[in-house]
Design a protein that fits this description.
By secondary structure, the chain is of the alpha/beta class. The protein has two domains: 244 residues, 3-Layer(aba) Sandwich (D-Maltodextrin-Binding Protein, domain 2); 95 residues, D-Maltodextrin-Binding Protein, domain 2, CATH 3.40.190. Helix content is 28%, strand content 15%. The longest helix has 24 residues. The radius of gyration is 20 Å and the shape is globular.
Length: 370
């Protein structure tokens, strides 16, 4: 879940630990001399298909800690042991809804977190982070409506023109950016959405609602049988708020010490993401298995995971962006995002420039989605 955070600046200091460099190579690379083991990654939510490329490097002999909701195994690249272990920590209940940047600054054992780039910028003043990989070019968050009730609505802007109530999470920051962009009016926004479909269904589709395009079209036709029909939506990205979704980020102070590791690990993860989107089945089985074993309120069947993986590709959420490289950041996109945040009244540090929020240093430019 995306949230802005507050943490004490004193936690920003982390002790350095240097690792020797290893030859730059992705598939079959030996990470043992360059990376900590286990390499710990904090997920932003319960396991789901958006994390598929991370579960793709989780070896088949993985172990699930049901109490702490973690998965650990050898870290593999194209099935080959890299010499270290990886631990994936579930978000959601285990982190009590905290932003992963806050979690990173309360637990120094974590090396990397899944963190949307605008949340990184919002939290930078007290929890400075830097993104090292952008697995997604588009954010799947959107606004949905009932096409039978509103056949003339095609875009979020149409919802504004018709003054339709838009129900969103009280924790979501993006609605104010849509107001800044002229896509919504403040008066029509209702910040009481609790992730339940109950109000939308009870209204018989007379309100619009926050949606996740990788799951909600599936949910409203397959899971929420009391609705049981298609919905329509527009992505906030397509409405003008371009920001990298679910990047991989580290503490800014850790950049130098993790540099030898990231030179090997990031190309490996680039390849894993490209492989996952082409062949998601094996990673999806691990995701579904972990969700079943931790046995929380989160439910994630195989057909939902398959739907999400396909939607990521169909929506252009997974793509090379404006060039032929997968996973790199475009400065224009980041600059545009930060301009919208500042125009919307967000209190970013005066000296925070886009280059402090991301780096393409570890990206292998030859890796792309064909």
């Amino acid at each position: 879940m995306n949230r802005s955070i507050q943490v004490t600046a004193a936690l920003a200091v982390m002790s350095p630990l240097l690792f020797a460099a290893a030859p730059v190579n992705a598939a079959g690379a030996d990470l043992s001399a360059s990376c900590p083991s286990p390499f710990i990654v904090q997920l932003d939510w319960f396991p789901q298909a958006e994390h598929g490329y991370l579960f793709n490097v989780l070896g088949d002999g993985y172990k699930i800690d049901t109490k702490n909701m973690t998965a650990r195994s050898k870290l593999v690249a194209e099935g080959k042991d890299t010499g270290i272990e990886i631990e994936l920590r579930s978000g959601g209940a285990p982190i009590a809804g905290m932003g992963t940047n806050k979690v990173m600054y309360t637990d120094p054992a974590i090396h990397m977190a899944v963190l949307s780039h605008y949340d990184l910028a919002l939290g930078y003043r007290v929890a400075p982070m830097i993104s090292v990989l952008a697995p997604f070019e588009k954010n799947p968050v959107g606004i949905m409506w009932d096409p039978q009730t509103y056949p003339d609505v095609k875009t979020i802007k149409d919802l504004k023109d018709k003054n339709i109530v838009v129900n969103v999470s009280p924790y979501a920051s993006y609605p104010k950016y849509l107001v800044t962009l002229g896509q919504l009016s403040e008066a029509q926004i209702d910040r009481s959405f609790d992730s339940s479909p109950a109000r939308f269904i009870a209204s018989k589709g007379k309100i619009a609602q926050q949606a996740l395009a990788t799951v909600d079209p599936y949910n409203y036709t397959k899971i929420y049988t009391e609705w049981g029909k298609p919905i329509k939506y527009q992505l906030i990205d397509d409405a003008g708020f371009h920001a990298y979704f679910e990047t991989l980020a580290i503490r800014s102070a850790d950049l130098e010490k993790l540099q030898p590791c990231l030179k090997l690990l990031i190309p490996l993860l680039q390849r894993s993401a490209v492989d996952y989107i082409k062949h998601p089945e094996a990673a999806n089985e691990k995701i579904v298995d972990m969700v079943k074993k931790i046995n929380s309120y989160w439910r994630y069947p195989m057909d939902k995971a398959a739907y999400s993986a396909k939607a990521q590709l169909d929506l252009g959420m997974v793509s090379n962006g404006s060039d032929t490289t997968f996973g790199n950041f475009d400065k224009k996109v980041v600059d545009g995002m930060m301009d919208i945040l500042r125009r919307s009244g967000e209190r970013l540090p005066d000296d925070l420039t886009s280059d402090k929020t991301y780096t393409n240093e570890f990206i292998d430019k030859s890796i792309g989605l064909n």
